[in-house]
Amino acid sequence: APPPQNEKTPFHPRSPYGCAKVFAYHTVINYREAYGIFAVNGILFNHESERRGETFVTRKITRGIARILAGLDKKIYLGNLDALRDWGYAPEYMEAAWRMMQCNTPDDYVVGTGKSHSVRDLVETAFACAGISDWQNYVGVDPRYYRPTEVEHLVADPAKAKQELGWEAKTEFNDLVKIMVKHDLKSHGLEKEAEKIKLV
């Protein structure tokens, strides 16, 4: 469905993982309606942090930069740089989940920032954090990483969460990237480089 996506947007899963999430979504609603269980669905858009797995694109980029600066790698290989995603900071999304559980009546909520950025934006921002402007020299595009059923543009409409839960994302995209790059530089012993990244 065209962006932004809200609680009424029809699901169209593009992977087995997506299919499993839709099954879980309907199971929650079924138990809520059939048995009166207090159960909510959080429809969480991409939420990232320093703990993100290393195979996910955000961490692949930030960790890849650290490995390049540490002399361990020469390039990062990625898929579709033009894919647009709504990336937010995971700890804030857990606050949203907690707020859902405090409601008097269970319901379903989209959680996201309401802003989208491309993978290319993420790459450029992350390399800039590390003081590298010519990122094109360190990034290769590999067709193997293209998804057979790519979703081009995902961006949340979190209006309901803001109105009913009083929740909204606070960490801006650039700051999220800084947090992740700083962490990966430190974890590779690049303390001096990490100290140059100032967080708000």
Automatic annotation (TrEMBL):
A GO molecular-function annotation: GDP-mannose 4,6-dehydratase activity
Cofactor(s) essential for the protein: NADP(+)
Keywords (A to Z) from UniProt: Lyase
GO-annotated biological processes: 'de novo' GDP-L-fucose biosynthetic process
EC number(s) reported in the record: 4.2.1.47
Source organism superkingdom: Bacteria
Keyword Lyase: yes
Stored Gene3D superfamilies: NAD(P)-binding Rossmann-like Domain, UDP-galactose 4-epimerase, domain 1
Residues of the NAD(P)-binding domain: 3-180
Entry similarity comment: Belongs to the NAD(P)-dependent epimerase/dehydratase family. GDP-mannose 4,6-dehydratase subfamily.
Name the UniProt record assigns to this protein: GDP-mannose 4,6-dehydratase
Native source organism of the sequence: candidate division CPR1 bacterium GW2011_GWA2_42_17
